[in-house]
Amino acid sequence: MASINSDEWKAICDKFTNAQNLTDVESRKDPENDPFRSKYKARELLREIYCSLKSFEASDGEEEIAEQRPPEEPVDGQREDLFGQGSSGDSPAGLRAAKLGAVEYYLGVNHVDTEELSAGQEHLMNCMKLLERYNVSSVNVSLFIHVRNQLGILWAGRDETETAQGFLETAEAIYQRYMKEDGSPPTDMTEYFSTEEKTYQERIKRFELAYTHTMYYLAQVYKNLGQNERAATYCHSTLQRQLKLNQYSPMEWALNAATLSQYYITKGRYMEGRHCLSAATVISGLAGEVPSEAAAQESETECERREQLRQKRAEIARCWIKYCLNLLQDTKKLLEDNIGELDNDRQEELKRARRLEEEEEEKGRKSALLFGSEDTFDLIASLEEKVSCLFPLDFAEARAVFLVGQNYVTQAKEYFQMDGYVTDHIEILQDHSSLFRALAFFEEDLERRCKMHKRRVDMLEPVCIDLNAQYYLMIRRQLMFELAETYNEMMDQKLTLANRQDDSQSLDSHTIKKFNHLCSSSAKYFQMFIDSLRSPEGKVPEHLEEEVLRPALVARFRVARLYSKLMCSTPSAQLDNINKALEHYKYVVQYCESHPEAGSTVETELELSREMVGLLPLKINRLKARMAMNNITD
Predict the structure, then answer these.
(1) What's 599's DSSP letter?
(2) What is the structure's pLDDT at 333?
(3) What's the angle, vertex CA 616, arms to CA 612 and CA 620, rounded to 5?
(4) Strands (E), 440-524
(5) Where is composition skewed (Basic and acidic residues) in this entry (predicted)?
(6) What pLDDT is attached to residue 367?
(7) Fewest CB within a 10 Å sphere: which of 170, 272, 432, 443?
(8) For residue 377, what pLDDT is reported?
(9) What is the pLDDT of residue 303?
């Protein structure tokens, strides 16, 4: 602007610098009862700059940029062509429009930050309108991207996800085309109001950071649209770019990488999941050591930092637990036969395939999306070597994965203790129990397998008994069901082991006592689950809610089978147990008859229950007849 002398321009630049300082620095010190004080001051300075620019523009005799209707927001699948129309963005008029547009942009962000969204949207759209007459160029491309980023955030916050998507995808397209057709480090917006130009490297970094924000926001948008694969891709690229640009908070970055790992795990992509977790662990270490309790007590800030570091590292540990658990469970699904035991033929088949796969592993490893820098690559790779990303195909390999998971269980429990984090602590215990269960599948020695299940009982039973049913009813039900199933597995394995060791048909009294104890314990916890569904007056519910329908009917079915399995020394005790079994079988049948929609949730159990309802009365009558005959004989 030729009519602005150096003193006037310096005054504008000083005001802009002050506005930036108020926004970025001073606002952090604002009191709670006046949280936007500094931003309101910054707003006034920006308005003064805007008025000055407009007055200089008018006094210079230039054509004022007319007020026009804002352009329509791009919709999903549509992108504006901003490269081949309008005047040159590098022209004096284009530069003037960019400067005025930048002030509108900063005013828009200011209003959004102070929760005045409509005013913020108006200023941001004014910025769009000022730029629309000019082609994208090195002078204005950064502003083109920034304003669309902000509009994307604004509309996403209103749950207008597709509108946000349109703005952000346009910003992405602008970046990609600019880099393809020009690629020179563009002018940064702050340079519009500065007497000094930024360096080549500073320009590149700030421009790349703006595009990184575009990718970050698009990851959120795609996640909200249910496009999880695209969301994961954009999230991964965002994390890579943050590391490359050295623009990240170590703990926040690490937590995001650990969270991304959980997506890869659910898709069976364990190489990527392991890489994310290894990078998360290494980068979280850059946040420094956890302050000692003594240091934390001396400073409130250190106390908060201590808690945040401990919590986030514990959360990363929990993600590692899920990695190990899912790897073992997915392998179990591959290797189990139709009765849930290890299929040796399938095991050998996968081992042969593994030998071929290992030859391709290095090639696949190089094609994976890698995190890190020269300082961290080796640390991440070293951590990856400590746990496999391949399916463990025998007990030794499964145990190695289990031990890694168990180590992270210990780490997670150090922070998520029962006193203060009841729900989290119990979830970690349940994962620990599941790790033992998954490992037991690979164990061929039934005695050792039983001991693993006993470890599960020992860690869950005290918690289940002590837990307050009023406040933690759903969690307590989960524990009851898991304990019942664990005792049931132990019972089946003890019986199988006893039959292997004793070729005779009869079992010794010690084995029978042990079997009955496990059988009764399983029935006890299933019954506790059933009783937890009763009303406060003790009545059985006429209608079972959807979330407990299947477990409630399965529990009834299992209790019935357990009563049928108990080994009794007297016919009267046997008759009593069969009658109890019949009662539970009848409940399953009658409930499904009165609630036909329930039958599809327990098809197998319902079919067997109907069969037993027909057979058990005959067995009861025969037993009664035999008892009567014995009485006559006696």
Answers:
(1) G
(2) 94
(3) 170
(4) none
(5) 66-82
(6) 52
(7) 443
(8) 85
(9) 82
Q: Are 241 and 220 in contact (CB under 8 A)?
A: no
Backbone angles phi, psi at 61, to 5 degrees: 80, 10
Which stretches of 532-602 are DSSP H helices? 546-565, 571-594
Spatial distance between the Cα atoms of 243 and 261, rounded to a whole number of angstroms: 17
So what's the pLDDT on residue 188? Answer: 94
Kindly report the backbone phi and psi dihedral angles of residue 368, in degrees, each rounded to the nearest multiple of 5, phi listed first. -70, 155
Which residues touch 621 (CB under 8 Å, ≥6 apart)?
none
> How many other C-beta atoms are found inside a 10 Å radius of the C-beta of residue 469?
12
How far, in Å, CA of 429 to CA of 460, rounded?
7
pLDDT in tens, 272-289: 999 999 999 999 998 877
Contact 428, 391 (CB under 8 A): no
Other Cβ atoms less than 10 A from the Cβ of 46: the count is: 25
CA separation for the pair 241, 186 (Å, rounded): 18
Residue in 101, 100, 96, 111 with CA at minimum distance from that of residue 42: 111
What pLDDT, on a 0 to 100 scale, did the predictor assign at position 584? Answer: 97
Residues 6+ apart with CB under 8 A from 426: 418, 463, 467, 472, 475, 479
> How many angstroms separate the Cα of 617 from the Cα of each of 117, 573, 583, 604?
73, 16, 11, 21
Query: What tokens appear for 318 in the block?
Result: 């929990």
Q: What CA–CA distance (Å, rounded) separates 196 from 202?
A: 12
Q: Is 183 left (phi over 0), alpha (psi -120 to 50) or beta?
A: left
Tens digit of each residue's pLDDT (9 = 90 or more) over 55-77: 876 555 444 443 333 444 444 43
Q: Is 634 exposed, middle or buried (0-12, 13-18, 19+ CB in 10 A)?
A: exposed
Residues 533 and 548 sit within 8 Å (Cβ to Cβ) = yes
**Is the Cα dihedral 94, 100, 104, 109 positive or negative?**
positive
Q: Please say whether the dihedral angle defined by the alpha carbons of residues 601, 604, 609 and 610, taken in this order, is positive or negative.
A: positive
Residue whose entry in the numeric block shows the structure tokens 């940064």: 188
Structure tokens at 158: 């209103």
Kindly report the pTM of this predicted structure. Answer: 0.86
Low-confidence ranges of the chain (pLDDT < 70): 1-3, 57-87, 89, 290-300, 357-368, 501-505, 632-634
